[in-house]
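Protocol step 4 of 6: structure prediction from sequence.
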Amino acid sequence: MGGELRGEARNARVSWTSREGLLLRLIDNEGRFGVGEASPLPGYSRETLEMCADALERLDTGGLPSSPPDTPAAEWLPEIGGLLPPTVPAATFALETAFLDWAGRRTGRSVAEILRPEGPHNDVRLAALMQGRTREEIADEARAAFARGVETIKVKIGRPGCFDQEMELLHGLRKELGDRFALRLDGNGAWNLSEAEERLPSLASVRPEFVEQPVVPYLLLKLGDSPVPVAADETLLFPGAAERLSSVRAVRVWVLKPMALGGIARCLAVAKIAKARKIGLVVSHLFDGPVALAAAAELALALPTPPLACGLDKHAGLSAWPGVSTPQIGGGTVRPSGAAGLGVSLPGEG
């Protein structure tokens, strides 16, 4: 599944003009099914689409429960993900999602209700990624986002040799749009440690909510105090990173990308640590398709504590899967879909 994008998906250093993924369908003996999606992102993910396909083809489905478990998901979901090797996190996400979708369709509950029996959060705010390259383009995108009810925008920074120009752009945005929006910045690991220690104080003047991954993953563990909050993204992909990041005072937010982190069970385990350390959480995507985006939305609704505005706004990557909607996402919020499972209808399901 997948295809060419209408527009461009990109970060500060890499762009993508097409997006591909695998659709996993689990079907029981009575014909009832659930769907999941494995869409590793080239240039970001640790695995390839071929690796995911191979792992899923080798999957022994005999290890899956034959009926929806009636115990808390935290007790059985890690075992389902454990049926696949840790080298294919996107495939693990697909398998967990497909099983949860199947269990939800069987029981009439949403995935969020299965993950959080006490009830999903009612209203999780959205953050929108700005893809424009100039101040005027970004300001226009921001106004369009505000018109939809989105009050948090994210801007990519970290282009080589462009910090002064980026600062000028950010000051221009603040002057033009004022303080009616929360501004997030994402460095995609572009700086070394000395550059981060020099530039983070400068960014305080544009009042960012946080600066995401200003340095490469291992250097984030060495970052000293910062006048602006810092968020961890790629660093969380390494074993034991969440526990080690808990002692880095500058890091006050963790970004959960289930397609990269290794599925919903792993995200919930990291979220439990974050809750104990009073660290904010954001759920985001890898320009995933609609099935994975719906699963990420259900995760956001089921976290132990309500997350900050989540990076789950509709994005360019969805154009590779036309005609499929994500019912949890609309306007400026993520909200319960009111449907069983993921609530996603795929072509030909009828």
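Step 5 (inspection) to follow. The first helix runs from residue 49 to 57.
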